[in-house]
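Hi R.,

As promised, here are both runs. First protein below:
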Amino acid sequence: MLISLLVAASIPLGVHAEDKDTFFPYFYKPFKGEEQTIKELGFTPTPHLLSKLNSVAENPYNLKILGQWINSKKQIGPGVVFIKLDNVSDEEKTIKLIQDAADLAAKSGFIVTLYPYFGTAVPSAEAAVPFVQKVNRPNVGLTLHMPQEIKGGNARRFPEIISKVKQYINLVVICGSDLPKEGDQPAKWSWSRMMRPLGEGDFDVATFVKEVKASGYHGHYAEICWGIETPAMDYLPRAFQIWKTMMNPENFL
């Protein structure tokens, strides 16, 4: 299969990044009635698809499957297409495929976000910037992925990183995480130390969000729940309240 349908939640996006701040969870352990329950908790239900692009594979990206997924969700509302760039050695092909995906997504009001992932060709937000620039589509940006950046050794570089990428961000991923100490090697850590329910761990997520907001960003936030075996309803209600508190305008006076 040319595109990996790692997740496809039938949840509507609602607004575009310039309108207001929204929050949705993804990769949580599924449960009965999740769509309605997530909405009742206060999250903005958002359809999202994680796909992979490999520029040197025989079939580098499957636009047909992407189109089918968008068609199945567009009656609910616009959503987000994550593109994880596994291999970009054929840059021309990579740019063209992202442009094609973006144009397809734009027809239904969907956005495309380049999704940095540790160990891939584009492991960080900074590495994604040149691709966003070259793709040059209004519905294409990058994900500022807090745990991925921590994994890459960037836990104490966020002010610098945000300054460099702020105009290209269209999704910010947060969660609970441990803070690497001097001399630690988070690249060798289990993901369970960097992808925890919001409110756990000693990394200061509130300060991270404040730095993002100070850059002028308004848009989509998401809590990644990958690998968390705890039932979602045991931590998502608290997660939303934590995010709501972090986004209180009084925190930014």
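And here is the second one, sequence first, then its structure tokens:
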Amino acid sequence: MSNLVNQIKEESIKALKEGDRAKLSTLRLLIAELEKEKIVRKFAEVVELTEEHVVEVINRQLKKLDKEIEAYQHVGIGADKQLAEKEVLKVYLPVQLAEEEIVKVVKEIAESVKATSGNIGQAMKEVSSSLKGKADMKKVSELMKAEFANVVEKVEKVEEVAKNVEEDVKTVVKKTRSTKANLKTQE
């Protein structure tokens, strides 16, 4: 049973009593989305959803709102309503980690994955299980891509240095052969 679902329902009743239409509308929409999630997961009651399920639903709603805000801003329309809805929904999310903590976790996971498989997909899978609900996954993805881009740059530099060393070795070998040939002709 999810205390978060009960809290959302109680706060929607409170918003109704206080006449806070914006909050009430947002919470009703969230409750409707939670009901849909209940059906998808084949639960009898919405309160059977875990806090993790509720956070997933809230994050989906936040993504939708972000897209709406972006679309409105793209055409020059104000998105005050959507921004207010985001603020109402964010209250129900777990405390988000500070950026320094997120960067630390991303770097640790990136390093461990680079040492084994070197696959960014595997790294994203691990980091999402660690940070899901605790951080903006879009930001996490950008940080992970940057970490792997650094690795690609380093690998390219190493390959370039190896190529230069190989060319230098070939040059030295040629000079050595030519010197040996010169010495043999002098004898």
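A quick note on the second one: Residues 15 and 24 are 5 Å apart (CA to CA). Let me know what you think.

Best,
J.
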